[in-house]
Amino acid sequence: MRRDTAPAAPPRLVHLGLGAFHRAHQAWYTARADDAAEWGIVAFGGRAPRPGDLDVPAALARQDGLYTLVERSEDGDAFTVVDSIVAAHPGPRTDLINAHLADPRTAVVTLTITEAGYRLAPDGGPDLADPALLADLARLREASAVDDPAALTGATTAPGRLLAGLEARRRAGAGPIALVPCDNLPGNGALLRGGLLALAAEVDAGGHHGSLASWLADHASVISTSVDRITPRAEPDLAETVRRATGRSDAVPVVTEPFSDWVLEGEFPAGRPAWEAAGALVVDDVEPFESRKLWLLNGAHSLLAYAGLLADHVTVAQAIEDPTLRRAVEGWWSEAARHLPADLDAAAYSRALLARFRNHRVEHRLAQISADGSAKIRLRILPVLRAEADAGRAAPGAELAVAAWVAAHRRGLPLVDAAGDDVARACSAAEPVEALLAMLDPALFAGTPVGARVRDGVRRLVGAAEGSRHCGEISPGATARPA
Ligand SMILES: NC(=O)c1ccc[n+]([C@@H]2O[C@H](COP(=O)([O-])OP(=O)(O)OC[C@H]3O[C@@H](n4cnc5c(N)ncnc54)[C@H](O)[C@@H]3O)[C@@H](O)[C@H]2O)c1
Ligand SMILES: O=P(O)(O)OC[C@@H](O)[C@@H](O)[C@H](O)[C@H](O)CO
């Protein structure tokens, strides 16, 4: 695929974390905006592709940024060429990230770097024990003593790359900018803003060049978002499906569901595309929308992932047809709905979700969703479980999600987790179940009725394997590797 005569839109948006979701979501909204011709995206990969994975930025660059979005419903496929990405580069091209951020025409940075990519500690602040992040900070401190732009290159973490780019913008006097995290993290705007300010303060403390932190506070408007579109990893024959249906040769098509949702809160001081034209909603308070989505959709996904894998299911569509799991998901939805504002109509959202989960043509693999469970259970299940426990109620759906995560480790399922070292340590502790629960929240589970019910659940799910001392192979996820 190549661009023909139509000129590409000017580059005014920068994206970090060029994967499937960005192309199914933000790039698609941008291409459908009324003013799409004015807004081109320069997209950067994140970490180096894993062995066997496609190099998406390289493949997209060979196609002038064009790709096919396959919207897959129960009834069939719709194929659209998305043209909003005007340049694609590998993540390590920090010289280009800096150059684009230092350009006053760049108005917005979007991010889909995965939850682990933010490199947060359990308290929600930046993980200042992370060696890669510390190395990026040290580089930035040294760079503050020199005016050479090359000194601002070479960061390996996403926060380090963003911070270096913002420092380049500050030095260029290129003005304010909006930062739009589009990852499934509760309070993603506050987490990104707090993280960047804390990291900038670390740089300022050892640097010589003035205050990056106060520049950020005045010039970086961090948007909070709720993002929703189920976008599984593309199956190997998707390119062939596209070729047969459209005659086009596309090395990196994306498959997604027809449904899409984007809710944003915050100011865009240098402008933005008219995303509302494609259905985006700009609100004063995104938090209730975000909780609804993270609890009802992602929480149910986590429940299905661990309980479904334990029951030998492979995809979400298979797991939701299992009557026991479906009842558990419906139970979880009722538990979560009690803590959502009534005007968000959680019941209608859940009904629609059930249909989305049952779309068997979208092959969303439980193994993909199961990654990084220690953080996801903490963020997506525990807030509801705590609230239910405080109200003196049992919460069987939430309790099953926790028990299934523990049991999946105890049964030796090969799970990827960014906190893989901690999980492995917990698994080889004298009391692995206690240690795994303590990783999530010691106070919630130690000597409490909810803890007792979860332990019973683990015993039932682990069954015959209970005597085994070790969990399965736990691969470290993203934070354990250089980005
Ligand atoms: N896929 C979905 O259905 C969906 C829906 C809503 C939100 N999201 C959010 O988008 C994120 C990405 O999903 P995707 O489907 O595009 O995945 P993907 O694997 O296709 O792409 C992930 C991108 O993030 C980069 N990345 C991975 N780990 C990183 C790290 N530690 N540091 C920096 N960059 C890193 C990768 O290089 C890649 O560019 C999810 O983690 C989630 O937070 C996804
Ligand atoms: O992307 P994650 O790893 O946060 O969670 C896996 C899925 O639950 C998630 O990707 C959903 O499909 C998505 O959030 C739907 O909008």
Characteristic terms for this protein:
alpha/beta; binds nicotinamide-adenine-dinucleotide; 2 domains; Rossmann fold; six-stranded parallel β-sheet; single chain; disordered C terminus; 14 strands; globular; Mannitol_DH/Oxidoreductase; N-(1-d-carboxylethyl)-l-norvaline Dehydrogenase, domain 2; binds D-Mannitol-1-phosphate; 483 residues; oxidoreductase
Architecture overview:
It is a single chain. The protein is α/β, with parallel strands linked by helices and 483 residues long. It has 2 domains: 11-282, NAD(P)-binding Rossmann-like Domain (Rossmann fold, 3-Layer(aba) Sandwich); 287-480, N-(1-d-carboxylethyl)-l-norvaline Dehydrogenase, domain 2 (Orthogonal Bundle), CATH 1.10.1040.10. The protein has 21 helices and 14 strands. The chain has helices at 20-24, 26-32, 56-62, 94-101, 131-143, 158-172, 188-206, 212-219, 238-246, 287-310, 316-320, 323-337, 346-357, 366-369, 373-380, 382-390, 396-410, 420-427, 432-440, 442-445, 449-462, and strands at residues 11-16, 40-44, 67-73, 76-82, 85-89, 108-111, 177-181, 220-222, 224-228, 254-256, 261-265, 281-282, 415-417, 474-476. A 6-stranded parallel beta sheet has the order 5-2-1-6-7-8, sandwiched between helices. Strands 4-3-10 form a 3-stranded mixed beta sheet, with helices on both faces. Helix 10 (287-310) runs antiparallel to helix 12, helix 10 packs across helix 15 (373-380) and helix 17 (396-410) crosses helix 21 (449-462). Mean pLDDT is 93; it is low at 464-469 and 477-483. Bound molecules: nicotinamide-adenine-dinucleotide and D-Mannitol-1-phosphate. Residues 12-276 form the Mannitol dehydrogenase N-terminal domain. It holds the Pfam family Mannitol_dh.
